[in-house]
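REQUEST FORM: STRUCTURE PREDICTION
Request ID: SP-0412
Submitted by: Lab K.M.
Chain count: 1
Length (residues): 296
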Amino acid sequence: MRHLLEIDDLSPDELHNVLAYSQLERPKPVLAGRGVALVFEKPSARTRNSAEMAVVQLGGHPVYIQGGELGFDTRESVEDITRTLAGYYDFVGARVFDHATLERMEKLQVIPIVNLLSDKAHPMQALADLLTIQKELGDLSGRTLAFVGDANNVWRSLALGAAMAGMKTRLAIPDGYGPAAADIDRIKALGAEPLVTQSPVEAVAGADVVYTDVWASMGQEGEFDKRKAAFAEYSVTADLMEQANPGAIFMHCLPAHRGEEVVGEVVDGPQSRIWPQAENRMHTTRGLLAWLWEQQ
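STATUS: Completed
RESULT:
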């Protein structure tokens, strides 16, 4: 039984296969007559809509379930809830506060589990990001990705996926907010040598893709003022984009805070690919589920 809790649960070859499945315009209705449980402890715009439509496009029936309706470890244990859902559905996609919840669900081996976002990882976003880069720039191998901002779950999954695809990765981040050594070791184990720097210009110079995310992720709202001060020099501006390769694209997982991590001139400008990137969330969710179905 295959699951996806982090993008490197796939091998590099499997990653390329999932991206290929994601580009099929008329996928087989492999989920016809079947249901997919979509569990959301955290609210979402893109994740919910893209996941529901991906299931529909595969012929299946998505069921949206709010976290409070299940009550992980309050109304029932994670394990009991997972076994219950396995009696009704063929997949569970879950957007959770604690990555350990997904690990406990996976450990039962009663139903394939897909991570729709956790505090540690966002593999579905990374798949959409890689598909976007592939569609816009062609072959991923040898391309340079510069991430300006926090070493959060989005960065972690994307850096792992980029390494698997043969890309070069750079991270510009303020002192005291850098990635954990274990994250860097994990990326290196995939054959990449990530650059971590406090200089946005150094990170972006000659890059093919410039990426950013909010400075305070969901659950970090209490740290916003501190983080805003620390990251003040890490906004993606038009001047910073000029340091990238000609033809470089700008990406953001959204929602974007214009005037903070990126200026409106960039996020709404000609180099921005945020809307194809958002749409690709649907295509890669569809591609992953179709691929996973074949693995069961």
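NOTES: The radius of gyration is 19 Å.
Reviewed by: T.R.
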